[in-house]
Amino acid sequence: MSSSSVSDGILNFAKQYSIYTGCITFSFGVIAVQYSTYFLYPIFGGLLPIVIASAFSILAYHNVRHIVRRQLPIVRRKLDKQITAMVLMRVIVFVCLLLPFIIYRIYAINFPISQSMPMAYAIGRLLQTILLSINNINYMINFYIFIIFSSRFRRQVKLVLVKKCWQRWKYWCCPINNRVEPDNNIEPRNSQIESVENM
Q1: What is the pLDDT of residues 11-67, one digit of tens each?
Q2: How many Å is the Cα radius of gyration of the chain?
Q3: Range of the domain at 63
Q4: 1 in a structural domain
Q5: DSSP letter at 27?
Q6: Is 35 within a domain?
Q7: How many domains, the chain?
Q8: Higher-pLDDT residue of 100, 83
Q9: Is position 190 within any domain?
Q10: Can you name the residues that pair with 28 across neighbouring β-strands?
Q11: InterPro entries under this entry (predicted)?
Q12: Nearest alpha carbon to residue 77 among 87, 63, 59
């Protein structure tokens, strides 16, 4: 099979079965609906990331349970517990923010709303936009989760923001002139003596 026949096959498939995205609407083919409903969103979008994240969080929790039994310094055990708590909370938040969008996408693919019904279509688009925004919070919420659950992370953030970034910003914006400059208004010595005598 040559590469041109493969690309021709892909183009023919694209002509027959198109994909519904957030920006462009096409008619759906049966194969694309089945692929999206039973494989793309449930497996790649939902189940696989959730299973991988959950598996690693369970492994981290299991590891911390074994660390408690070993003879390690108390500080190390405390830090490991904090990291495990952060990982577990991250996975819980990840699942809570991901599932609504995946469920809605599967529903929207199987029960599309026609543009001939503008109010229902607008509500569907609004709901999709809100759920997509909630899903995108996954990429920025780590910082806030770590700030909430880790005192060491809070100390490090404070050190970086206050001690380093603030000092650099202060130096760039408000330079302090600590140089000694000569006084250019030098009066003759005799005039200084006369002014002292007049007092």
Answers
A1: 455 544 444 444 444 455 677 777 878 888 888 888 888 899 889 888 888 877 776
A2: 32
A3: 46-173
A4: no
A5: P
A6: no
A7: 1
A8: 100
A9: no
A10: 18
A11: GPCR_Rhodpsn_7TM
A12: 63
